[in-house]
Amino acid sequence: MKIAANLSLLFTELPLLARVQAAAAAGFDGVEIQFPYELPALQLKEALARAGLPLRLINLPAGDLMAGGPGLAAVPARQAEFDAALQQALSYAAMTRPAYVNVLAGRLAEGVSREQALACLLVNLAKTAEAFSLLGIGVLCEAINPLDMPGFLLNTPEQLDELLRAVDHPNLQAQFDLYHMARQGLDIPAGMALLAGRIGHVQFADCPGRGEPGTGALDFPPLLQALRDSGYNGWLGAEYRPSRQTEQSFDWLPTWQTF
Questions:
Q1: Hey, which of 19, 46, 107, 177 would disulfide with 7, CB 3.0 to 4.6 Å?
Q2: How sure is the predictor about 198, in pLDDT bands with cuts at 50, 70 and 90?
Q3: Phi-psi map region of 137: left, alpha, beta (phi>0 left; psi -120 to 50 alpha)
Q4: What is the reported pLDDT for 34?
Q5: Are 12 and 245 spatial neighbours (Cβ–Cβ below 8 Å)?
Q6: Which residue in the list 46, 142, 158, 212 is annotated as catalytic?
Q7: Has 239 been annotated as catalytic?
């Protein structure tokens, strides 16, 4: 399998732009960045070209989500802000050419019912999927555990399945995160089977702790095999917090690349 380094969590000893070359030197096949917008798109494009690495994933700007707010995608009163975020991401992606853009559903906003939030999210996902289809870039949505991110709208594969069916757009798929599923004690292979054929990207970290493989209790080989059995042949994103210097946390990498 091909492995992408998540540069928002790995190589944080370095400035963001320098992490691209560090990922190449460490043997990764590509990179992903949660929110790359602090970097001019042209600079990131040139750094990727110098390193010979593809950009696999970025997130749509999410407003105040990472600071504890509800974000943008499921808040009716923030529709104009979401539309501006979509345009920013389209412009950035046209230059940097990620394989996928992830739309974070966000938290339930005060005064908004879950039904209202999901209706808003459905419209915004359909709009985003259609807009990025013109660039040949896929759109993703993911479930995130409510222990690390209380109030997040989507937590389980079942909720993702329902969402994908409701939007029903050929350019929208699931992002499946092994850590977020394990954090909730969910049946991970069952979730993979439920979403089989509709998973565009997979991320991982060990659990508990969200460190590199081997620092927690997850038994990864059966999970990787379950991914294969579900028909997934895409990339894996290493989105973990290293337990030590980043370069010293890659004991797992050669074996995973040959899986």
A1: 19
A2: very high
A3: beta
A4: 98
A5: no
A6: 142
A7: yes
